[in-house]
Write a structure and sequence with these properties.
Radius of gyration: 16 Å
CATH class of one domain: Mainly Beta
Strand order of the largest sheet: 4-3-2-1-7-6-5
Shape: globular
Pfam family, one: DCP1
CATH architecture of one domain: Roll
Number of strands: 7
Enzyme class: hydrolase
Strand content: 35-45%
EC number: 3.6.1.62
CATH superfamily of one domain: Pleckstrin-homology domain (PH domain)/Phosphotyrosine-binding domain (PTB)
Largest sheet: 7 strands, antiparallel
Distance between the termini: 36 Å
Helix content: 10-25%
GO cellular component, one term: nucleus
Number of helices: 1
GO biological process, one term: deadenylation-independent decapping of nuclear-transcribed mRNA
Order of helices and strands: HEEEEEEE
């Protein structure tokens, strides 16, 4: 991994990504590159009975990465609230919808339960339906 900016802040950023990559590789040795990072996200699930978003116990840094094995891409939220990280492979069965500033997704395993909303604090927190 290389720094995208010059100077000591660029070196620190690259060093931070190297440390993060090593942590992700302990979880999945096939991860080979971090594509993007969001420093603070929170995951919500959509409750179909109440038609409301409910905050989960998953909150932390979002890493989008490539892998050397199939599936070739995935994302992980390194949970700051517990040791339970959220990891999702990015496959054809994963649906994404951008409702700025929210990223909504639905996976195949929990198609009606596991719809998540990730946000960056400080932006609008107005709930939206999936």
């Amino acid at each position: 991994m290389t720094a995208t900016s010059e100077g000591s802040s660029g070196c620190n950023a690259a060093k931070g990504l190297d440390i993060s990559l090593a942590a992700l590789q302990r979880q999945d040795p096939y991860i080979n590159n971090i594509v993007d990072v969001a420093s603070q996200v929170a995951l919500y699930t959509y409750n179909n009975r109440t038609n409301e978003w409910e905050k989960t116990e998953v909150e932390g840094t979002l890493f989008i990465y490539t892998r050397l094995a199939s599936p070739r891409h995935g994302f992980t939220i390194m949970n700051r609230l517990s040791m339970d990280n959220l990891t999702e492979p990015i496959t054809k069965d994963l649906d994404f919808q951008l409702q700025d500033p929210f990223l909504l997704y639905r996976n195949a395993r929990y198609s009606y339960l596991q719809v998540g909303r990730m946000y960056i604090p400080g932006l609008s927190l107005t709930p939206t339906s999936p």
